Amino acid sequence: MIGIEIEENKKYNDHERDYLEGIKLVVFDMDGVLLKNRNSWDVIINRSMKKHSYGENMVYTFDYVHRNGVPERLYEHLTESKIKSYLNLNDMSSNVLRTIEYLKQRKVKTAIVSAGSHVFAGYISELMGIDYYIGNEVDVDNHRFVKNVDPEKKDVNVESIQSIFGIFPEETLSVGDSFMDLSMKRKSKYFVAFNPSSYRTMEYSDFTVNSTNLYDIIEKLVVH
Description:
By secondary structure, the protein is an alpha/beta fold. The chain has 9 helices and 7 strands. Residues 1-12 have low confidence and may be disordered.
């Protein structure tokens, strides 16, 4: 009889689990999570060139442009307003707004921590009502790229956001697609691998969601 009761309770709990209980902050990576494209800098550099004339077949990561810069003539095409125009909203994962609105209803703060474009992150935050964002930038006046987010040390940014909102690591959930995004796990109770780029990312995550529909994260974490 006791064994049957335990089994019944287990079934009930499986249908009622809510991993967002007690979570007050959800931190999203941008490239590969909020955006389907995994490299916003490659999009920006190629759009700024208009044609693939500089370094054809080259994939531009932030680390590359941070170390090497770009031809002088390109900086005039890397102003905030021009970068903003390079964002294709059709590249956004589906149901981002629905996901953010659900979290707002639960009084959960949301943030973007991305080694991608700070301008892209700001534009998405403005459109979707995300509470905080930080990404990497172009200093057009001084012709250099500014690293605000080290992808291997995103926990530093997460900790800063927690300090701003008075939230603790055990009240934080982070979402990323790459192995380096797991650095956020150091300051999070849970890490969700969304549309993961590698098996290793899934291996070290608490949850995996193979999808481009952001709301599937909610469906995974909250079962009624």
